[in-house]
Amino acid sequence: MTEGENRVADISLVRRHRNNSLLRLDNELLNEPLVLEMANYCQHGRTSTLEHVYAVAHCSLRVSRFLRIRLDENSLIRGALLHDFYLYDWHIPVKGRKLHGFSHPDTALRNAKEHFRLNEIEINIISSHMWPLTLRRCPRYRESLIVCLIDKYCSFIETLGHKYNSALLSALRSEMGGK
Fold this sequence. Notes:
Layout: H1 3-23, H2 33-36, E1 42-44, E2 47-48, H3 49-66, H4 73-82, H5 100-115, H6 120-128, H7 142-159, H8 166-175
Antiparallel strand pairs: 1-2
Helix pairs in contact: 3-4, 3-7, 4-6, 4-7, 5-6, 6-7
């Protein structure tokens, strides 16, 4: 190898290591059976709700680190993982259920509060992630705003048919203990 090729290989290894370290969210929620149940529900296109929330958490963490935004990373990850914790298939109409886009943040928050201890940042992430659709529930923290914006981005690309790369999905499976 020439010196230039060595330098390119070294940069590639650094990027791969950096990317892999970001892929590990190491969050206890990824071992919770109810959280894993989100894999049974379709979110957008061919993406499950579990894949969606994992992608939102992963991208939110990456963006915040890239922009060097000081925040509570654990709350960011937990809030992102629970922001769509509503546990039903929103594509199947149910009589009496309000429009999903408006009502699911309340359902997700109610479910999350019932099963997990949440702090104010996590509560705000879950309740405000559909802003501006939910006008009265605005993001009040950096973490909430990042998750809100990244959720829009992930939802958009999923709706267009994007399938997450194998590295992201492999990381999700490994964090779930290979399930």
